[in-house]
Amino acid sequence: EIVLTQSPATLSLSPGERATLSCRASQTVSFYLAWYQQKPGQPPRLLIYDASNRATGIPARFSGSGSGTDFTLTISSLEPEDFAVYYCQHRRNWPLTFGGGTKVEIK
Amino acid sequence: EVQLVESGGGLVQPGGSLRLSCAASGFTFSSFAMSWVRQAPGKGLEWVSTISDSGDKTYYADSVKGRFTISRDNSKNTLYFQMNSLRAEDTAVYYCAKAPPIVVSTFECWGQGTLVTVSS
């Protein structure tokens, strides 16, 4: 099973700041990595698939990069609605796994 | 607009059974893989099962293999999840999720979830 480790666990930032979230895989997942955003009481929302492709309707301030074992989700300038928990997920093989999440909170 | 509406959750005793349903609309259900993902209270996301568009291929997490069964009825646009031998650790919100085109194992759209509580 591929283990995904997200860091930091919590990121305290102000609106307008840049957020950089990390996801590291225990073995290569090639480019088969997705990012999701989840707000309290809501289901997750797909942001990025296959490392760097924005899902439909996702603003350009969200970008993904990386391949192999190291991946980054960047939010170029935080909007108030971006404060949430973010999860990475691989689809390299079965079983699919998620990272433990990074909470982006208002500083 | 894609809609996924889960139902069937509730309180069940350890060792009991539940059947979840997910009614799909707004897309050609028979063309997309579907999955169940769960989230224990206050915890992260856990993939539990995926079924191919035609239903001929199924995949399970080790934590539920042999106890849970995913299935679908493409004529009714409905996804199912039969959960047997339930344990306390199965307590979670269960989401159904639709895959994007071609890719089986990414979760493009999600339902609102249904809560399953396993407790005596």
Describe the structure.
The complex is a heterodimer of chains A (107) and B (120). Chain A is mainly β and 107 residues long. Chain A contains no helices and eleven strands. In chain A, a hairpin with a 2-residue loop joins strand 7 (62-67) and strand 8. The radius of gyration of chain A is 13 Å and the shape is globular. The termini of chain A are far apart. With 120 residues, chain B is an all-beta fold. Chain B has no helices and eleven strands. The chains are: A mainly beta (107), B mainly beta (120). The interface between A and B is medium-sized, with 21 and 22 residues.
Short overview:
The complex is a heterodimer of chains A (107) and B (120). With 107 residues, chain A is mostly beta strands. Chain A has strands at 4-7, 10-13, 19-25, 33-38, 45-49, 53-54, 62-67, 70-75, 85-90, 97-98, 102-106.
Tally the helices of chain A: what do you get? 0
- Overall mean pLDDT of chain A: 97
Q: pLDDT under 50 segments of chain B (min length 5)?
A: none
Task: Compute the number of strand runs of chain A.
Answer: 11
Return the string of H and E elements of chain A.
EEEEEEEEEEE
Which assembly state applies to the chains in this document? heterodimer
Q: Which class of secondary structure composition applies to the elements of chain A?
A: mainly beta
* Biggest sheet statistics of chain A: 7 strands, mixed
End-to-end Cα distance of chain B: 40 Å
- General shape of chain B: globular
**Count of extended strands of chain B:** 11
Order of helices and strands of chain B: EEEEEEEEEEE
Strand content of chain B: over 45%
Anisotropy-based shape of chain A: globular
Q: What is the end-to-end distance of chain A?
A: 35 Å
| pLDDT < 50 runs, ≥5 residues of chain A | none
Write the layout of secondary structure elements.
The complex is a heterodimer of chains A (about 110) and B (about 120).
Chain A: E1 4-7, E2 10-13, E3 19-25, E4 33-38, E5 45-49, E6 53-54, E7 62-67, E8 70-75, E9 85-90, E10 97-98, E11 102-106
Parallel strand pairs in A: 2-11
Antiparallel strand pairs in A: 1-3, 3-8, 4-5, 4-9, 5-6, 7-8, 9-10, 9-11
Chain B: E1 3-7, E2 10-12, E3 18-25, E4 34-39, E5 45-51, E6 58-60, E7 68-73, E8 78-83, E9 92-98, E10 109-110, E11 114-118
Parallel strand pairs in B: 2-11
Antiparallel strand pairs in B: 1-3, 3-8, 4-5, 4-9, 5-6, 7-8, 9-10, 9-11
